[in-house]
Structures are given as C-alpha cells and as structure tokens.
Write a structure and sequence with these properties.
Blueprint (H helix, E strand, L loop, with lengths): L9 H14 L3 H36 L1 E2 L2 H13 L9 E2 L3
Helix pairs in contact: 1-2
C-alpha cells in the first residue's frame, strides 16, 4: 500500500471526523471508502458514456433505432412484467 497526504480545510476535516464517528469507523476508513466510492462512480459513468457512444455509432451505421412511443411502452411494461418483449428497430433514414 502507498501513502497519500490530503490537505483538508479544518471545517471539512471536522465534518469527516464527525461523519466517521456517526458511522462508527475511523476517519481514515471513512476517507478511504469515500475515495473508493468516488472512483467507482467515475468509472461507472465512463462505462455508461462509452456504451452510449457505441450505441449511437451503431445506430448511425445501421440507420435504425427505436420509436420513442415503443420505448416508453416497453419501459412501462418492464415495471410490471419482466417478460415484456423489446420493441423492434425501425429505419429512421429516408
């Protein structure tokens, strides 16, 4: 493991100590977990953006996509019935 030095304002340091106390963990454990969660969130968002870019590129290459009303109905149906069938792609180019 490596060591890192963080410079925190006195106010933020006290807030972190207070939050750690509420959770029943050390301030160090609190900061490590906060950094882990932040890194995970950034990685998850980056993966989401990459997936969206890939989907857009595929849509542009194929010239097909999903009609908004079909998507809305599909998502609404998924809330109550997990076996709902995904709508078919349709051409959007003329």
């Amino acid at each position: 493991m490596s060591t890192i030095s963080l410079k925190l304002t006195d106010e933020l340091k006290q807030r972190a100590i207070g939050a750690a106390h509420v959770l029943g963990i050390s301030p160090h454990a609190f900061m490590v977990e906060a950094i882990r969660q932040a890194v995970h969130a950034v990685e998850k968002r980056a993966a989401f953006v990459a997936q969206a870019r890939d989907a857009r590129a595929e849509m542009l290459a194929q010239g097909q996509g999903y009609a908004p009303d079909d998507v809305r109905a599909y998502l609404h149906g998924r809330l109550t019935d997990r076996s709902v069938v995904r709508p078919a792609k349709t051409p959007w180019r003329k």
